Amino acid sequence: MTNKYSVEQLIKNEIKKRGAICFGLIDSEGLTEQEAAKMAKEADKAGVAAILVGGSTAMDQLELDKVVRAIKKAVAKPVIIFPSNVNSVVPSADAILFSSLLNSENTYFITEAQALGALLVKKYGLEAIPMAYLIVGEGGAAGFIGKARGIPNSKPEIAAMYALASQYLGMRFLYLEAGSGVISHVSSQMVQAVRKVYDGVLIVGGGITKPEIAEELVKCGADILVIGTLLESKDGRKLLSKIVNAAESAKAL
Ligand code: 1GP
Predict the structure, then answer these.
(1) Which end of the chain is more exposed for a tag (fewer CB within 10 A), N or C?
(2) Does 1 fall in a domain?
(3) CA of residue 27 to ligand 1 center, whole Å
């Protein structure tokens, strides 16, 4: 990872160049450094623009730091922390998605964890990318741990309200999260409704398992798709480059 450009700028340049991009998400929990490096290399080969490292129940900060270091050694792309709590802040990453879970019922996940972690982000010299995080539907582990009041997939207008509020609050990225490994991804209608009002970088993740889904979500306005669970199996990893290509060509339609 070069220091010439900020990670945020690099991401925005990639979106401009490729239309839409994918991030590979690696859950550090229980992974050896070798396994993480292998997954990152394969994701890199498939064409992801960056590697996110996180996991709603990953609590071991030392393990996370080791995994991030191993990934950084293995690939030249940005390695970005996708935090679940204060202990996700590790020095070895290039940046952190500095997130507020706007639809949590617990203020800890909206502003308190952020206050507790902020000085550490500064101390480690991590680039903080301001991001609104919205849980859609039941939200898998992220929804449970984050005590989210999930936005029903059938109510896109509620997501649009939050999206516009996040823009007015200055958050330059917005992540619509259906939850890792869920069966129903964020609906096309919801992505469309959010895109209509939100000018920042729109990330969509959770349950994206086929190129057709990727194509549809990008056509509706997603800039970045996050793919996690597929990276965990050989067959899934085979699909990844197809998903990356589908996302990239969809924007051009
Ligand atoms: C989870 O949105 C991400 O935070 C990725 O979801 O594991 O379903 O790809 P999957």
Answers:
(1) C
(2) no
(3) 10
